[in-house]
Each structure stands twice: as C-alpha cells, then as structure tokens.
Design a protein that fits this description.
The protein has about 80 residues and is an alpha+beta fold. About 65% of the residues lie in helices and about 15% in strands. It has a three-stranded antiparallel beta sheet. The mean pLDDT is about 90.
Length: about 80
C-alpha cells in the first residue's frame, strides 16, 4: 500500500524538510505518480521505528541499523517455519 507524502508527514509528525533530508540520505524513497510523491507502508513503519529509537538517544545511523536488524531477524525466523 502506498500513501501520499502528506499522510506520512501527518502520521510521523515530521516536516516536509525532515522527510526530504531523510530521502536524500537514502532512508526512504518515494515514488512519483501523477505529480505527487507516495511512500510505501514499509517506508512508514520503518521510519516510525527509526524515529522512535532517535527519541531514545540513538543517532540516525544507529536507529537505522536497529530497525533493519530487527526486520532481518523476523524474516529469518519466518523462513525457518
């Protein structure tokens, strides 16, 4: 499922500039359709986790590693079933 950028901004309570900075750093990648930018539900939940870890004092890079590592562990556990 894809959401317009405005939905992401509202759900995560971040500014358009913050979202733009995160996209420039490769944290999220929007797709353009009909002149609007959309983000996947994966982007939304991944970014939500990253921002949560950052509120707890982790750097962006540390938070990104934690979120990505947890996703890899879930994927590995599911493949063993």
């Amino acid at each position: 499922m894809y959401f317009p950028a405005e939905h992401l901004l509202d759900k995560l309570q971040i500014s358009a500039r913050e979202l733009s900075d995160l996209e420039k750093k490769g944290i999220v990648k929007g797709i353009v359709r009909a002149g609007r930018v959309f983000y996947s539900s994966r982007d939304l939940y991944r970014l939500k986790g990253i921002l949560l870890f950052m509120t707890r004092g982790l750097t962006l890079e540390e938070a990104q590693r934690r979120v990505d590592h947890a996703a890899e562990e879930r994927s590995a556990a599911e493949s063993r079933r």
